[in-house]
Amino acid sequence: MSKLEMKDQRERDQIELEADHRRNKMLKFLKGVVAGSGTGLKDLPYNIGDPYPSAWGSWSHFRGTSKDDGSPVSIFSLTGTNPQDGHLAAGRNGVKRLRTVRHPNILSFLHSTEVESFDGPSPKVTIYIVTEPVMPLSEKIKELGLEGTQRDEYYAWGLHQVAKAVSFLNNDCKLVHGNVCMSSVVVTQTLDWKLHAFDVLSEFDGANATATGPMLQYEWLVGLQYKPMELAKSDWATIRKSPPWAIDSWGLGCLIYEIFFGTKLGKTEDLRNTASIPKSLLPDYQRLLSSMPSRRLNTSKLIENSEYFQNKLVDTIHFMEILSLKDSVEKDTFFRKLPNLAEQLPRPIVLKKLLPLLASALEFGSAAAPALTALLKMGSWLSPEEFSLKVLPTIVKLFASNDRAVRVALLQHIDQYGESLSAQVVDEQVYPHVATGFADTSAFLRELTLKSMLILAPKLSQRTLSGSLLKYLSKLQVDEEPAIRTNTTILLGNIASYLNEGTRKRVLINAFTVRALRDTFSPARGAGVMALCATSSYYDMTEIATRILPNIVVLIIDPDSDVRSKAFQAVDQFLQIVKQYNEKSNAGDTADAGSLGISSMPGNAGLLGWAMSSLTLKGKASDQAPVATANSVTPATITTSTSSPGLIETPSTAPVHRVSSSTDFTDQPMPPSPTSTDGWGEIENGIHEEHDSDKDGWDDIEPLDEPKPSPALANIQAAQKRPVSQPKPQASTSMRPKSTVKVAKDEDDDLWGSIAAPAPKSASKPLNVKAAGAVDDDDPWAAIAAPPPTTKAKPLSAGRGRGSKAAAPRLGAQRINRTSSTGM
């Protein structure tokens, strides 16, 4: 052979090798398409776990998990010793059918592979199918243990789902399943029933009149007890003349028998026993098992007309599944009834089926706001871990909703889930959306936002508390709604312990004395007094003596009896603190003397706790501070921000308390504070003054003690005159705060002169002569001051001893509220 011929031969051999390689590669690919999607058990991306005790036919059913994320799956395996085994051929048919047929009530296919092993003299072939996690129906029924009406409702729902799957195969796909029974039904984690076991599945060729061979190639896999008469006789001519649903309708009848009798069908004759079949289902059961194939009930007709499927559970789940097709009125009606309805339904179905449907509907916007009530009601039946996993993620996403009704529903029920939220989630995801409600045009939403801070504030960072929340509260303390102003004071007192020391020094006294004690709404003044008492442990002796007591003392002649009573309590309490400080100082115990406060006094814990509980309870008129007007005989009508219960709720009409004729307060709607600067108000409106203070609302707190007011007004006036000579020497002591050193001498004289006046009526006159130039030049609130409110504030009335600054807009709601409180 010449060299040229040898070269040609080598080239031909190379071409043949390449062709063989491509042919083998193509065969391997086709085998993967037909028999599976993997190359071997080692390459199966799932771990095989424990087996279930039962499965359809020769298959084995295992629990499994994904190697990627650990998510649960189900793994079915079928093993044969002969590659040409008929069971393996039928199994390959089942894999192909399950891969291509998709329906909500048919088992979802994920992966498959075929593995060949050589453990003995002959090779073994194993087919693996990976599906969504499911459980055999017989095992799930035992696990649930339902009885009575709840069992019948759940069976109705499950049969409804299987009937839809069979109807889809028979009527839409012209396919015949061939072996519908309990073993061919599995249950998902959401308790849905799904059809599988497609090994016998085949096309219905009734149009082919000339065909003589078997229509179901693998019908020999079906047990004789499950075969209708024509199939048992292999009468294929009759089968082809029958409707497509004839064989599977018979199988559905077998399934009904097995679930209600709780056992597998032993022989065909047992189907005549109807003792356990519900009466509402019995006519349909008999029509499904008709001896004449042409007269058997179509499964689609069973779904539409059966009385048995008309129950609360089926109707509820069906409504949820087609929720997007319902109008707003239908949705609203349904979700308002759902909380009570859920209590009557089987608890496992509610938690595993309805709850996920409801959470998904809320998350994607197809559910109305009332659905949140139902979601939280169902969530209360979960363990804390399950609640955090299944409910909280949906709630957190809802805070970003622009639907005002959803925002209101979230805030109204925040006490049911707020404690479960982590601090990081609150600070980063929840609070930024909730804070938009502080500036909402709806007073109701502003009030709900304010109330929600009682639960959310402890989870906020110091940066958020000082840089954001306090700015909003500063603005709300001059809100046009008196109830919101009062509730703001209450809230600030309750969150004072979460503020750092510097912020408390800068905020508390200004908020309580400069604003709350000067509010024309009497519950707001009472709240300010009790807030000072409840937070007394945060003030040093200089602040108590020079800033707190002078502001409280003037309220002992307040027009409202409740405010006067609280003022007497507060004076007595703070004097006791000062006395204790003096005693310790005289004894030389200066280390603990400066830290005295209400926390060291008996009953403090009850006071703080009582106030905090009052924020969340639905208020009663008898528990709230009455709105009293002086020298009037007609009821005073008080308009609160909303009719909904808030942190403080005042009755719409309060009784009037008549003041003794010996002292006329009609010219003094509210005694002025000796400090004529309004800390938060000035910052809020761009006017910088000096005093720093803080606020806390404790309007309806029970007093620690009930001190008796002086019976004679002359004694009170004499007590007011005594400390006139004391404030000046204190100005030079080391205990005086740095901010008070800058107070002008004429301001000090006027401060104490206003209190020393012989009578409240005459005292109102000299209070108006304060020099307008005494404006503070160091504003401790400037760092956290909020921008001016969108609603322009009303000017203060001259009757409050601030006539020289009447043109400066401060507490915008004051004049309106004074009118309402006097019955005008």
3D architecture notes:
The C terminus is likely disordered. The longest helix has 33 residues. Helix content is 46%, strand content 7%. It is an alpha+beta fold. InterPro entries: ARM-like, ARM-type_fold, CIK-Related_Protein, HEAT, HEAT_type_2, Kinase-like_dom_sf, Prot_kinase_dom.
Total of helices: 33
Distance between the termini: 128 Å
Quantity of strands, as a count: 12
Global Rg: 41 Å
Strand count, sense and barrel status of the largest sheet are: 5 strands, antiparallel
Task: Describe the strand arrangement of the main beta sheet, using strand numbers.
Answer: 1-2-3-5-4
Strand content: 5-15%
- Estimated helix fraction: 40-55%
Taking all residues together, what is the mean pLDDT?
75
Molecular shape: elongated
Which structural category fits the helices and strands? alpha+beta
Task: Enumerate the spans where pLDDT stays under 50 for 5 or more consecutive residues.
Answer: 29-39, 598-786, 788-824
Report a brief summary of the structure.
Helix content is 46%, strand content 7%.
Layout of helices and strands, plus pairs?
Layout lengths: L2 H33 L10 E6 L8 E7 L5 E9 L5 H15 L8 E9 L6 E8 L2 E3 H8 L3 H25 L2 E2 L8 E4 L4 E3 L6 E2 L25 H4 L3 H6 L4 H16 L20 H7 L10 H7 L6 H10 L6 H17 L2 H17 L7 H9 L4 H7 L1 H7 L5 H9 L1 H4 L5 H12 L8 H14 L5 H15 L5 H13 L6 H15 L6 H13 L6 H13 L7 H26 L3 H4 L10 H13 L19 E2 L15 E2 L24 H6 L28 H9 L5 H4 L14 H11 L4 H4 L50 H8 L3
Antiparallel strand pairs: 1-2, 2-3, 3-5, 4-5, 6-8, 7-10, 8-9, 11-12
Helix pairs in contact: 4-7, 4-9, 10-12, 11-13, 12-13, 12-15, 16-19, 19-21, 21-23, 21-27, 22-23, 23-25, 24-25
